[in-house]
Design a protein that fits this description.
single chain; 419 residues; alpha+beta; 6-stranded antiparallel β-sheet; disordered N terminus; DUF1015 domain-containing protein; UCP033563
């Protein structure tokens, strides 16, 4: 098998997918979930209670990853999970109110860290990589796809093929609790596989979601000698020119930092304004800001808007060699100036918690932890693409591209994907 790191561009290969047998579960909606890092403790309990075969029992096992591996084996033996008869690429559609995205799920050729084929745009941390590596090693599986974007320039052969396939009856269809419909089609024709391979070969892709999982693919490949299934990882590839992504905000919660203290310390570099308790009004004010801005809230009833950071302090806080565009990112100012310099807090996973999209949930979590919620505007897609193209990475958890693929619709195991 060729060394995928020497290939000139993207490689998305057909494979024999592992999928739920609809006759063995209550519904596909009941056994699938969002990506693992979007599931909080409350949601995990709900998924565990809803259906005994929910995918969270594999991606977030409650004991150890040996249990996840045993559960996967037993579900395969019992026929809860089945293996498709033929290798395929899978056209995948997500559709709902204001949502339509189509892409292609396949086995992604893994490239080395220096490759310019698959571009990360966020930094990664060792802890999540160790966690996912332990899971993938124990289960010998990729249990959920990462999410990649490429620019098909409005007319890629791959996106045209996906749209053509989507006009036929799907292999499966389900609607989830967020009112999004998910449909899947298997593409088994080797001639179509060859056409897609030729179209993708010279292209680059941006990691939209799954930086730690892609880094885990790389670590898994390094840990195994010789060619094998670890040279590939499960991925959804979407043409961003045909289906522009939505970019949402990721908020922060700083436990044990009272809002009054957070505001007082922030005044050393920011203009602060007390807004009152109405979240919707405060979010409108935040969204209306042209420059760097943050919304703070917690136990106190009032919300506070931070704007107009002192540019001298911003400049002094930034690492050498970063571009003006990188230094202007809200998350760069947050992680280089506000959290470490003004609040004197170590910026790590223990001290800075993450909440995707939902500002109200971030505020509730801040109140439970006697802390401060930092509500952010989403970054601009153009800024993220430009930073990645320049070889830089935005600070951790700066972006939340969507819609993300549903976990559990398509799995890939090493033992069933022998090449």
């Amino acid at each position: 098998m060729p060394d995928v790191t020497t290939q000139p561009g993207l490689s998305l290969e057909p494979f024999r997918a592992v999928r739920y047998a609809s006759s063995k579960v209550s519904s596909l909606a009941a056994v699938t979930s969002p990506p693992y890092d979007l599931i909080d403790e409350e949601a995990l309990k709900r998924f565990m209670a809803d259906e005994p075969h929910n995918i969270v029992r594999l991606i977030l096992p409650q004991q150890d990853y040996g249990d996840a591996a045993e559960t996967l084996r037993s579900w395969l033996a019992e026929g809860v999970l089945t293996v498709d008869a033929e290798p395929a690429l899978y056209a995948y559609e997500e559709a709902g109110e204001g949502v339509l995205q189509r892409g292609l799920i396949g086995a992604l050729g893994v490239h080395g860290p220096g490759s310019q084929v698959i571009l990360p745009h966020e930094d990664v941390y060792p802890g999540p990589i160790r966690d996912r590596l332990a899971l993938m090693t124990a289960t010998r599986a990729n249990l959920e796809p990462i999410f990649l974007l490429y620019d098909g320039e409005g007319a890629s052969a791959t996106s045209r093929l996906v749209d053509e396939v989507a006009s036929s009856p799907p292999l499966l269809e389900t609607s989830t609790g967020d009112d999004v419909r998910h449909r899947l089609w298997a593409i088994t024709d080797p001639a179509v596989h060859a056409s897609i391979a030729a179209d993708l070969r010279e292209r680059q892709a941006l990691i939209a979601d799954g930086h730690h999982r892609y880094a885990t693919y790389q670590a898994l490949r390094e840990a195994n000698e010789g060619p094998g299934p670890w040279d590939y990882g499960l991925a959804l590839l979407v043409d961003s020119s045909a289906y522009p992504p939505h970019l949402g905000a990721i908020h922060r919660v700083i436990p044990n930092l009272a809002v009054s203290d957070a505001v007082r310390l922030a005044k050393a570099a920011f203009r602060t304004e007390q807004l009152g308790p109405d979240l919707s009004t405060a979010l409108e004010r935040l969204a209306a800001q042209d420059g760097t801005a943050f919304l703070l809230g917690g136990e106190e009833d009032d919300l506070f808007l931070l704007t107009d950071p002192d540019q001298a302090q911003v400049t002094n806080s930034m690492p050498d060699g970063t571009s003006p565009r990188w230094r202007g990112l809200d998350t760069a100012v947050l992680h280089r100036l506000l959290i470490p310099e003004l609040w004197h807090i170590t910026d790590d996973e223990a001290n800075v918690h993450i909440v995707h999209h939902d500002a109200e949930r971030a505020l509730r979590k801040a109140r439970r932890t006697n802390g401060t919620a930092v509500i952010l505007n989403p970054l601009q897609v153009a800024d993220v693409l430009a930073v990645a193209a320049g070889g830089e990475k935005v600070p951790r958890k700066s972006t939340s591209f969507g819609p993300k693929p549903r976990t559990g619709l398509v799995l890939r195991t090493f033992d069933t994907d022998r090449r």
